[in-house]
């Protein structure tokens, strides 16, 4: 567990003035890492740190020469913590490095972001128990949660090639579906296109094949956290997913927020594992006092939508739902690492875990349209009179994540945005 | 479809004498690519071609400088065909390059092989209809094949980090299982460890996200074929796999044969798509005359076992089963490419597809112990008196693959071997 230190002091201010704005996602207490270049420049991507509305170019600053976050991920938590401490000191009001570093700032508005690193393997979990229950109810009203759910952190391998950074349009997939009552399936555009509100957990140091990571060591293998939208084609999924799980319904595109908020930045926002009553304790290899008491993350998650009609009318995005990761997740990130490796599977730096859809216990805290609309049956009404059961072409979705607590500086994740195109 | 040319002439002989042996897997008509270095040398891995019992070092020969097969995979079929033609000419009896190239040979017995390239995404399909039927019967005697099977090339994303080259020991996984009648699951070593006989298909050129590959273009995106053993923990699988598919039961290790046999080498061994009677034609985006008439591969697959007791007694491996890919597969590799990309998923050079277990229609053609033993109920008897329902520690499995037809030179795949360690 990462300790609080002077980098978390809520009174710290930066000489980058925009980092001191109350509403910024990126005050000096955050310092998330990402991969950027100046838009339209044709430059190589390199690693930067978000500070206020700026990016500090770590290559120009002589602090990190890599083209990708992977070497920093691989080099372990001590180096990451050391870099955080140095950045915090250098970006602080009164720092002697101000003049030198001011030349290494690029406005975020002028930056093109990439995925933080080449993602090797991506695993999507299913830790949102309220999501799993709500979706299960649609298929099995009397038995929504399968018996393994409370014992096994259910997860499945996903597609890494189609994970794209925030802002990349996502094309509505075509695929095979079986319309109710039809004699045979048809091939055509997805009719039940949905989003899923998730967190993304990046692996830092890996483990050798055959050598599990214990629950006590698991957090040392985590690098940081992003927002993640696991776009889902529900009609394709319903037809294809038995017996081996979702496939084309999930691999046409997934959107990730480009700034990786480190475990250190999240230290003031840890929460106990909150499980609904009536579930057994995990088996010992997935259990520890630390993970039970502070293994979860207190992150408020919001989903915003702006339809094409709203955009044309100059109307801003509206919020569809809000939930909190700590209320939603039945398993902690450390439990996911311990589970993933318990059979010997090797994790590698830059691997990504999706949390699964993080819906809260009530319907307005849903992390997907499938839940908000009860399987498409109850349409969501938007302020301009439009209705949605599933996503239409031109709909732009944006996930936001915020950590706010008394006596801590508010930090955020930046945007995880994407628009559906036909 | 690759045409036959002079590189396939069964009368061709090489100046590498071992390539002219009747029983070699690697005559001059094969020329598979792999990644090697001299064992114990600490050298960098580089690309080689198998010829008889030798490896031709393409870097030393000045033919290819890459450390990995990926650049050759990415550069498309024309360059691969050109390289094949040049290698065929250079290794032929009477070639003027003999003296220069003889210095670039390394005996395979002295070579350490790696996986052919860094594998980005790995997808495992389920094309073996007899396997799917036999396994389905164990769970659903009256309804073994689900309705989607005859319409959708069922597949799921797999784990690429734990794919290891032939010869790497595989550790028996520990995991969660639910013993029959037990009040709660237990964590411990897998009790039902199995193998699966598959082919591996490497992707050559990729496609952009959102741009499907048509069935007619699909084979141009395939690079070549390997053997693949998808080790499976059946007890872990049974407990974890609902609702999102197999996960830890499959990701503790998968073994690949290190030599990639190109589509060109397989040109004399194409076969029609042989589907059991009573199934509908595929939907148009998965159908073509070419794939129906010659989309399958006539590859004989064999599974051999040598237990620890056999090894200690100096007894050779014995054959457990034989099948043929062309009798087993309900979908062609081209159909898998067209399906995988039809929703917009982007494939990348070096991605790997597993075929799924390629069992023939009769039980002695089973590609797994699950089938050979009818779910573990009928033990397999070995010649030394030992019996197996599932694999024990010290069991060494070897898959072999051979293409043999009249008027064609026999070619093979080399070994896909691994031993279970406790």
The CATH class label of the largest domain in chain A is Alpha Beta
The residue fraction in helices of chain A comes out at: 10-25%
Number of strands of chain A: 27
Low-confidence residue ranges of chain A: none
Taking the alpha carbons of the first and last residues of chain A, their distance comes to 45 Å
Q: Which two chains have the most extensive interface, and how many residues on each?
A: A-B, 63 and 64 residues
How many separate domains of chain A?
2
If classified by CATH, what would the architecture of the largest domain in chain A be?
Answer: Alpha-Beta Complex
Q: And the CATH topology of the largest domain in chain A? A: Fumarylacetoacetate hydrolase, domain 2
CATH superfamily of the largest domain in chain A: Fumarylacetoacetase-like, C-terminal domain
Quaternary structure type: homodimer
Shape of chain A: globular
Helical stretch tally of chain A? 10
Mean pLDDT of chain A: 97
| Sheet/helix structural class of chain A | alpha+beta
Biggest sheet layout of chain A:
8 strands, mixed
Q: Which band does the percent of strand residues of chain A land in?
A: 25-35%
Rounded to the nearest angstrom, the radius of gyration of chain A is 21 Å
Written overview of the protein:
- Chain A is α+β, with helices and mostly antiparallel strands.
- Chain A folds into two domains: 6-114, SH3 type barrels; 122-421, Fumarylacetoacetase-like, C-terminal domain (Fumarylacetoacetate hydrolase, domain 2, Alpha-Beta Complex), CATH 3.90.850.
- Chain A is 17% helix and 26% strand.
- Chain A has ten helices and 27 strands.
- Chain A has helices spanning 70-74, 77-91, 98-102, 129-139, 234-240, 289-294, 308-312, 325-328, 333-341, 369-372; strands spanning 33-38, 46-51, 54-57, 105-107, 111-114, 122-125, 155-158, 163-165, 170-171, 174-177, 186-189, 193-194, 197-203, 222-229, 232-233, 254-256, 261-262, 270-271, 296-297, 300-306, 318-324, 352-354, 380-381, 387-388, 396-403, 411-412, 416-421.
- Chains A and B meet through strand 7, strand 10 and helix 5 of A and strand 7, strand 10 and helix 5 of B.
- Chains A, B: Residues 165-185, 356-378 are annotated as: Disordered.
- Chains A, B: Its cofactor is Ca(2+); Mg(2+).
- Chains A, B: Ca(2+) binds at residues 124, 196, 198, 230.
- Chains A, B: Keywords: Calcium, Hydrolase, Magnesium, Metal-binding, Phenylalanine catabolism, Tyrosine catabolism.
């Amino acid at each position: 567990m990462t300790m609080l230190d002077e980098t978390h002091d809520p009174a710290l201010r930066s000489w980058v003035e925009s980092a001191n704005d109350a509403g910024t996602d990126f005050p000096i207490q955050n310092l998330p890492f990402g991969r950027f270049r100046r838009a339209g420049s044709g430059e190589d991507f390199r690693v930067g740190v978000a500070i206020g509305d700026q990016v500090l170019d770590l290559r120009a600053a002589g602090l990190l020469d890599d083209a990708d976050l992977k070497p920093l991920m691989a080099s372990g938590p001590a180096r990451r913590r050391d870099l955080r401490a140095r950045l915090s000191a250098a970006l602080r009001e009164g720092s002697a490095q101000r003049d030198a570093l001011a030349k290494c700032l690029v406005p975020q508005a002028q930056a093109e972001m990439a995925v933080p690193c080449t993602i090797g393997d991506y695993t999507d979990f299913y830790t949102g128990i309220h999501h799993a229950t709500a979706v299960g109810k649609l298929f099995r009203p009397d038995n929504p949660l399968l018996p393994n759910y409370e014992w096994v952190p259910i997860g499945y391998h996903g597609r890494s090639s189609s994970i794209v950074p925030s802002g990349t349009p996502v094309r509505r997939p075509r695929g095979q579906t079986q319309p109710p009552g039809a004699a045979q399936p048809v091939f055509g555009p997805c009719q039940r296109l949905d989003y899923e509100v998730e967190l993304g957990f990046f692996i830092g140091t890996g483990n050798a094949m055959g050598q599990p990571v214990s629950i006590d060591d698991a957090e040392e293998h985590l690098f940081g956290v992003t927002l993640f939208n696991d776009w889902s084609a529900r009609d394709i999924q319903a037809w294809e997913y038995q017996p081996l799980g979702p496939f084309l319904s999930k691999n046409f595109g997934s959107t990730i927020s480009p700034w990786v908020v480190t475990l250190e930045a999240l230290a003031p926002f840890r929460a106990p594992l909150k499980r609904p009553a009536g579930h057994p304790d995990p088996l010992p290899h997935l259990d520890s006092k630390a993970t039970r008491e502070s293994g979860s993350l207190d992150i408020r998650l919001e989903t915003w939508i702006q339809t094409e009609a709203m955009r044309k009318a100059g109307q801003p995005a509206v919020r569809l739902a809000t939930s909190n990761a700590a209320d939603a997740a039945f398993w902690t990130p450390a439990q996911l690492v311990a589970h993933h490796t318990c059979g010997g599977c090797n994790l590698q730096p830059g691997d990504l875990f999706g949390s699964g859809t993080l819906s809260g216990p009530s319907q307005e805290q849903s992390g997907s349209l499938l839940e908000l609309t009860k399987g498409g049956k109850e349409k969501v009404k938007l302020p301009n009179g439009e209705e949605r059961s599933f996503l239409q072409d031109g709909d732009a979705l944006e996930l936001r994540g915020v950590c706010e607590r008394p006596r801590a500086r508010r930090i955020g994740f930046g945007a995880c945005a994407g628009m559906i195109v036909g």
